[in-house]
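Morning. Coffee machine broken again, so started the prediction first thing and wrote up yesterday's gels while waiting. Chain of 411 residues, entered below exactly as on the submission form.
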Amino acid sequence: MASNGEEPRSGSPGRAGTGSGTEPSPTADAAQLDTAEDFEVLEEEEEGDEEDLSELPPLEDVGRPPAPPREDAQPVEQGRGDAAEDPQEWLDVLGSGLLKKKTLVPGQGVDTRPRKGQDVTVRLKATLEDGSVVEENPALTFTLGDCDVLQALDLCVQLLEMGETALIMSDAKYCYGAQGRSPDVPPNAALTLEVELLAARDAPDLELLSGKEKIELANRKRERGNFFYQQADYVLAINSYDIALKVIGSSSKVDFSPDEEAELLDVKVKCLNNLAASQLKLDHYEAALKSCNLVLEHQPGNIKALFRKGKVLAQQGEYREAIPILKAALKLEPSNKTIHAELSKLVKKHADQKNMETEMYRKMLGNPSAAGTPGKCKDKLPWSIPWKWLFGATAIALGGVALSVVIAARN
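Came back before lunch.
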């Protein structure tokens, strides 16, 4: 693939992360990733699944809407006979007013628009509302529809004709969102993008990629997933990890060396681990469990997969199954404080769960508690004494009446 990297740094267009000058430094990347939970850190070399995403919210997409309005479809001013597209006409791309496109220089026709899955090259200039330029790239290349770049760019380039230059005004939602991009893009910042479509071509055939090319492509998609994970956009993170896994799992007509096979497996494990982390964030427990199990099939001693599997089972209330898995992870890394804390928490929850079950069974079987017995005896005692006295008194009275009858008969 022609894109030059996925992970953004200061100077790249946020959710872009592709194109020259957009690859992050390892130090900066690690700093961002370390903001996560201790053991959930997505390291520079980390973790997604060939997971069915049908259960997840669909990614926003504009499809292929009709061509923007042209001059010949609108009332024409007196003296203007051309049929070219009105350069001042704004197109509300999503119908919400948050993403708008305006043609500055018309292109070569609707038939020249790029298709999803193609590799496109654009000239890009991104500015803030105050006019500050935060990105300039004369030839940014990415795969259209793969979320390799800012959503605003990915959505609107689908509407560009070859050679067209357009202005795109985007809300922060489709750029860097609430987090922004340090140090040049503040949180919740809207961007204006000037884009020219330079080229579009079919993406390379995955079956014909060399081992090195396939590894590089899968890693770019994985790193893009890491970017979305940092942005707390877990749906798009899953999408990127899934694309990376499909690249890795695609058939090949090229022979790979043992080292390349081993490296592809390593990238796959990282994607699956990160996929499980993203699925956990979305409470997709069954999917996360599947991702963890796929990792453990390849690497039974993978600590991250063991830890996350334990967390998934714990979230499902399966403490008895989760505890031995976390113990196995702790045995592999005894100094890990996060595993210690999680295990201690689960042991307590399991003990509480057993106590609740014991009490529930006692009630179901009708076994009185020790504290309840004296109370029941007390309840019986006040009633038992009066009835005995009443019975005795009645017997004596009847006996007296019978004796009187006998004496009277004899007389």
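The radius of gyration is 36 Å. Going to sketch it on the whiteboard this afternoon.
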